[in-house]
Amino acid sequence: MSSNAAVTSNPNWPQDRLKDESCWSDTEFCKEKEDWYSVAKTLAEQEASEYARNNGLNVVALCPPYVFGPLLQSSVNTSSKLLIYVIKGGPDVMTNRMWDVVDVRDVADALLLLYENDRSSGRYICSPNRVCTRDLVDLLKKMYPEYGYVNNVVDADHAGPPLSSQKLKDLGWEPRKLESTLSDSVQSYEKAGLLQGNPCRLPFLIRAWL
């Protein structure tokens, strides 16, 4: 399992071209931004790919973005903490940036699909949905108007080209709609008691990126 963090941070990628599996994050650019998460994900996937080439192996990497959806575990991962902050609100400022999102169940389906398909090879972007912060809030408010929601959202101008999941879809991958993922996420958080109480904070990792 890799990450879209190994794909997206490439300032030299043409702005009018979808980012596909040939796009790699620029590790020197990431180091300048002190984005060590993307550095680690990129180097790890590149090392695995090089080892595969040198040893006659077929290493397949899946690159998902922020992963929402129902929780199975008792702990809350960073992606879910992001969505919980959007719903509950809090003191941290958010930019109106674009968020690439996938459902955790679609990630599981993709992993199984790649494992069972003899044609799978190389990298696969697993990123079917893209939404900006304000549109994400509006979508959630229509379904669940009772929550406070983040209200300190400032403009941003760093959307970058969208990601293409076509290579994975060509194998038969059929991801859910974003609205379904959001609805099931909120219901899961409600059941776990995660939307009660006072406003919260953005995860530190995400605060560092904004």
Automatic annotation (TrEMBL):
<dbReference type="Pfam" id="PF01370">
    <property type="entry name" value="Epimerase"/>
</dbReference>
<keyword id="KW-0560">Oxidoreductase</keyword>
<protein>
    <recommendedName>
        <fullName>NAD-dependent epimerase/dehydratase domain-containing protein</fullName>
    </recommendedName>
</protein>
<feature type="domain" description="NAD-dependent epimerase/dehydratase">
    <location>
        <begin position="33"/>
        <end position="120"/>
    </location>
</feature>
<dbReference type="GO" id="GO:0016491">
    <property type="term" value="F:oxidoreductase activity"/>
</dbReference>
<dbReference type="InterPro" id="IPR001509">
    <property type="entry name" value="Epimerase_deHydtase"/>
</dbReference>
<dbReference type="InterPro" id="IPR036291">
    <property type="entry name" value="NAD(P)-bd_dom_sf"/>
</dbReference>
<dbReference type="InterPro" id="IPR050425">
    <property type="entry name" value="NAD(P)_dehydrat-like"/>
</dbReference>
